[in-house]
Amino acid sequence: MTIQYFRLVLKIPIPLIIVALLLVSCSNSSSTKLTVTVDYLGDASLELEKIPLHYKYSEKSVLSGIQSGNSFTFELPNSLNSGEIGSGSTNGPVQWYHIRIQDQFFPLAIPTEDSGQGKPIMVKIQRAEFPRGLNITGEDDQPLQTYKKFLRYQEQIAPIDQAISQEERLFTQGEVERMLDLSQQKVELSEELLANGIYEPWMYRVQGEHLVREIRAIEFLQRFKGLTNADKRRDSLLANAQEDGLFELNHLVAQRAGVRDYTHFYSRTFTLYDSVIQQYGELMEYDIKRLAYPALDRRRLEILDYIQDDQARAYAELFLVAERLGEVALNIAEASYQWYLTTYSDRYPAYTDFIKGFYQAIKAVSPGNPAIPFRLFDRDGTAYELSDFAGKYVLLDFWAGWCQPCLDEFEDMRRIYERFDRDDFEILAISTEVDSAIWIQDIDRFQNPWIQVYGGDGFEQVTFKKYRGGGIPFYILLNPEGKIERYNDIRPTFNLEEVLEERIDSN
Fold this sequence. Notes:
The chain has 507 residues and is of the alpha+beta class. It is built from 16 helices and 16 strands. Helix content is 42%, strand content 16%.
């Protein structure tokens, strides 16, 4: 592999999907019958969503079921289609699903290989307790024992998770020992209760989370405690992770992000970050990566050397190429894209087919292309469309009130907004908040003067998906001709004002 082909810029990651797994007795028969009953739905809907190849960039796949009142019946295939990833357990391949009601979901896994007879599964949901407190039974109406075991794990892990959350501030200030102790406790509990069963991928995920925390700890110790042997500690850490199997395919699939999180925090542990800050001052993490990505990615890609299995490496590199396509200009990402197709098309066509489709989708929203039409509404019900902004530059700002990096941009956004005339420049803030009531509260809380519209559905929002958003904050600058001027490389705290000066003031 040529390292230069895989320079990568990462963004705020959307939060990692929690994957819990449920034992189901499946067979060589064609399908398993799943019946889901909920006591109350109201205006909400229930969906069964197949978990896709890529956690962020794959299209959502929702399975159709037969609905009778508040009861839904699905026929789930007992074998994987060509190209699907089923993985994660010593018990064999599984197909992952989400039972979803609005923004809440319960993760479900169906084994695809079993010598036994396929049996129906019944899931009873009390809406007020969802996604916890499900009653899951087999054909004999008896609770599935492995589900009870997982529930016990959830109950025991809850206070540890709470303590981990409380330690985060001290952790990021270099007080790392308490966090690492708690994280290790979580690993040990997962190994005790989840190993060698259908829930084993959850254990892999916990192990991966712990590795990320250990990598982050090196950064914080180096920054705040004067750690001098960081390179040696990194090498030892990754060597131990390799020996423990954390770079094998089933582990990477359970993470649902390849090596994204490993490489993300790995690159942060080098003094390259500090050198960029010294040169440019305090910047958003996204800008640090963009300014220093050649050097950062050369270090980041060193982790790939710990992946020995060919398919595991292809899977990990898929995520690196996809992130690159989604985060940097296509003329920069093109080399890694072509390299990936050449290298893996014959062996892993499902991976390369996904990359091809994603490349075409990104190409359609690259600078110079017509902006994708939209119709979104403000809190008063006033509709806004692309045509309303003809003749002016408009910044599309995809944001949410829970996204601190989004909020960090507001001060510069207000200053820039006031500087330029409304005949020349406008901001359209498109909320990715799931709950419209929370969105309205955020509008009142921040009192930003630009247009605020709402699309609903979080990251599944239609406009966000059409523009291939992967995380927030996410910015697109449209020009007066209604074309995309800058895509995902524009930011109020860094370069927006400069770009507008060049285009508006020069005219």
